[in-house]
What does this fold into?
Amino acid sequence: MKPVEIADFVDSLASAAGAAILPFFRTSIHAVDKSEGGVFDPVTEADRGAETVMRRMIKDAFPAHGIVGEEFGAERPDAEYVWILDPIDGTKSFISGLPVWGTLIGLSHNGAPTYGMMHQPFTREMFSGDCEAARWRGPGADGKQASRKLKTRPCGSVGAATLMTTHPALLAEGTREPFERVEQGVRLSRYGGDCYAYCMLAAGHVDLVIESGLKPYDIVGLIPVVEGAGGIITNWKGESAASGGAIIAAGDRKVHAEALELLNR
It folds into this structure.
């Protein structure tokens, strides 16, 4: 697939998903709890509608491609090209009326993430990347569409870092204490954001994002954005983040190395 073909198609997926989601945002939409008695894990008609639309478009355009989505599972996950979809990453924020959620679209080639996007249709922002470069598109100061290259900022130590995680209560069992070792040393710690936190890292506003218990659809679409902006994103062993699990993203390799050491101490 040609890079332009991928980028244009992902834009169309994002636009279609946004059209399916926005009519439900800041309404009295009902959320179903998928957790079956565990930590509240909501899903809405907007989640399912957006993923349905994206799956249909992918099947029509690329019938040989695989699809892995949060709401409807996996189809041909061993295909050469696989689309990884999270229609609303941050559903808890969505149902709370907060605009820190987004649609995640990732494309893997032979198992390696190659292109990704986070689309926030309410703020009309797109954060996209191909592991080599990343861009932001959204409304400019004059109200017209604007675009700029994304670039992480330098940060030489944990002590100078701004750290984000969605919420410590969501960290997987056994990972809270390692996270707190890093958190105790940073300059500033903030909670919330889900996928938006990784995009703020790519834009140079945040230095570290540390989470655990993630699924591939939570992270694959973000890997090319973070890497394309010059950042590094791995699991807590320093290996590929594509399978999810415990994840650390950093804008600077120095702070990544120091935080990784603290997590594994």
Summary: The chain is about 30% helix and 30% strand. The mean pLDDT is 94.
